[in-house]
Amino acid sequence: MQEYLDFKLYLDAATQSVTRTRNSLYLLLTVFVAVLAVYVNTTVLDWSGKRVQRMRLAYECISNPNLTPDQCSEAMRYANDLHLPLDQSPEGKPVDKEYRKDLYREYRNALIRRRTDLRTIQLPLFGAVLDLNDLGLLSAVLFVILLIILRTNLYHEFGALESARKKAEIFDKEEDKSLYREANELLENVQVLASPKKHNRGFRWSAMVVMSLPIILHALIVTLDWTTLGIAYHLVGPKTARILWAFEAFGLIAMLWIWYLNTRVWLRLAYLFHVKDTPTWLQRVMRLSAIS
């Protein structure tokens, strides 16, 4: 009876460790989605920037008679979609040019103000506001901290599950095979980033994707900042721009190193209860690199 109570304590400790890993993983994914949304909306899908460009061109089209209809066709169609007045009203009456220019100018300026507001990042809880150009610094700090937390939780999860697995071996020594199998099944099913099913190996490797996504995103941000480094030279000066970009690059290197450490722990977790299923190449890696 005492053996069952002891195993229950080990199982509870393992469950708590798994819960901490799950929570840190949820937090990492939440921050990743938030940073990804900011990155996509300001680079790939810069909707606010495209709106400003079209509205600027539409204003130039009604202000500068030298522009050809081919140059103004798309911009004026955009203005028409916004129900802004063209040369004539829907009733066919001419529209006052000065009134139309004032209306286009007001709408253009509103879009510019809106775009300026969108190029700031407000940190929750703290209330601090950062410029969008600080996205690389913010992602480096946040992702490094969250990956370190994930690393710590993975390490404790591995230790707790390993200890519980060894504690369950007492049932095997007592020749209680059914109870031993049930204990191992319980431990297998509480894992977060590993699948206990042999036929579900694809899920095992999908966990690697989860841990790799923040690194890929930050690498894209660092690359973008490198290509636009010339603009930063004009805004903050060459020295400051290089220091800021070097900080982002250092964050990427730190994330790659933490990813390597996380991967070592995760690979041990993925095959903790299925050692015989461990691929040959992975067995060599484990022999060459002890878990830390």
Please give a structural write-up.
With 292 residues, the chain is an all-alpha fold. The chain has 2 domains: 2-45 and 125-288, Glutathione S-transferase Yfyf (Class Pi), Chain A, domain 2; 47-118, no CATH class. The protein is built from 10 helices and 2 strands; from the N terminus they run ααααββαααααα. The chain has helices spanning 2-42, 47-63, 69-81, 97-118, 135-173, 177-189, 201-227, 229-236, 238-270, 280-288, and strands spanning 120-122, 129-131. A two-stranded antiparallel sheet has the order 1-2. The protein is elongated, with a radius of gyration of 29 Å.
Outline of this structure?
By secondary structure, this protein is mainly alpha-helical. The chain contains 10 helices and 2 strands.
Low-confidence segments? none
Provide mean pLDDT, rounded: 77
Multimeric organization: single chain
Shape: elongated
CATH architectural grouping of the largest domain: Up-down Bundle
Number of structural domains? 2
Count of DSSP strands: 2
CATH topology of the largest domain: Glutathione S-transferase Yfyf (Class Pi), Chain A, domain 2
Please describe the biggest sheet, giving its number of strands, its sense, and whether it closes into a barrel. Answer: 2 strands, antiparallel
Q: Strand order within the widest sheet? A: 1-2
Q: Give helix and strand order, one letter per element, not per position.
A: HHHHEEHHHHHH
The count of helical stretches stands at: 10
Helix content range = over 70%
Structural category: mainly alpha
Q: Could you tell me how far the N terminus lies from the C terminus, measured between alpha carbons in angstroms? A: 35 Å
Beta-strand portion reads under 5%
- What is the CATH class name of the largest domain? Mainly Alpha
- The gyration radius over C-alpha positions equals 29 Å
